[in-house]
Amino acid sequence: MIPTTPTLPENPALITRREAVLRVSALLGGTLVGGQALLTACANVDARRPVAERARSSAAERARGGAAAAVGGFAASDVELLDEIAETILPDTTTPGAKAAGVGPFIALMVTDVYDADEQRTFREGMRTLDDECRRAHGAAFVAAMPAQRLALLERLDREQMQYMRTRGPGSPPHYFRMMKELALLGYFTSEIGYTQAMRYVEAPGRFEPCVAYTPGETTWAPHA
Q1: Does residue 49 sit in the same domain as residue 28?
Q2: CA atoms within a 13 Å half-sphere pointing along the CA-CB vector of 207
Q3: DSSP 8-class letter at 128
Q4: Half-sphere exposure for 33 (CA within 13 Å, toward CB)
Q5: How many CB atoms lie within 10 A of CB 121?
Q6: What's residue 171's pLDDT?
Q7: What is the span of the domain harbouring residue 6?
Q8: 3, part of any domain
Q9: Quick one: which of 64, 1, 38, 196 has its CA closest to 116?
């Protein structure tokens, strides 16, 4: 059965943000960040503005070496945990890591704004599960564990989520670590650090180059913002 495209105004000047998301969602077969999640976020755009401001403030404070701040429905301790999870996935190497890019506050903002109630519950329960797993395995909370202990735990959870996602039944929620990992990658590679340091970025290329020579070891080109 061919899906029905939503009826939208023909005058482009009258297209709202919600209608624009509907158009893009229709083009992608209705799969856009958890189905209707982005539409829910767009419907709540006015209520989200204070949350977004707090997320930006939290990220800026973290970049200055300060303590994490609360974002949305997440306490400062939650944001700190998300920062450390993201930093373990994308650590500081030859380029700044996830913490410097403000990924922890970004994840908290995305879960608050975009995820529905069931997805938020899965994510929050997953945070507690991850921390409990670290305590059982290493005798310490995740934020207090050694880097090697954190990495070993996340590598195990990554194997678990891949197996779970391959075999889960229809209607089953995604694995919580899959959600965390995807948001960490999204937050990092759409940040200024991710775009300009982990990748190469040109704001306005002079012409379209369909085939560009690649030298092994070069960073990939960032997509247009």
Answers
A1: no
A2: 4
A3: H
A4: 18
A5: 13
A6: 86
A7: 1-32
A8: yes
A9: 38
Does 131 lie in the same domain as 25? no
What are the tokens at 218? Answer: 């070069």
Looking at the structure, tell me whether residues 88 and 175 fall in a common domain. Answer: yes
pLDDT given for residue 8 in this prediction: 44
* Whole-number Cα distances in Å, 26 to 14, 29, 30: 18, 5, 5
Residue 123: inside a domain, yes or no?
A: yes
What are the residue ranges in the chain where pLDDT is below 50?
A: 1-13, 15, 17, 21, 24, 27-36, 46, 51-52, 225
d(CA 86, CA 199): 18
Q: What is the pTM of this model?
A: 0.69
| 205 occurs within a structural domain | no
Q: Do residues 35 and 28 touch, judged by C-beta distance below 8 A?
A: no
187 occurs within a structural domain: yes
Are the CB atoms for 137 and 148 separated by under 8 Å? no
The residue among 126, 136, 129 whose CA lies nearest residue 179 is 126
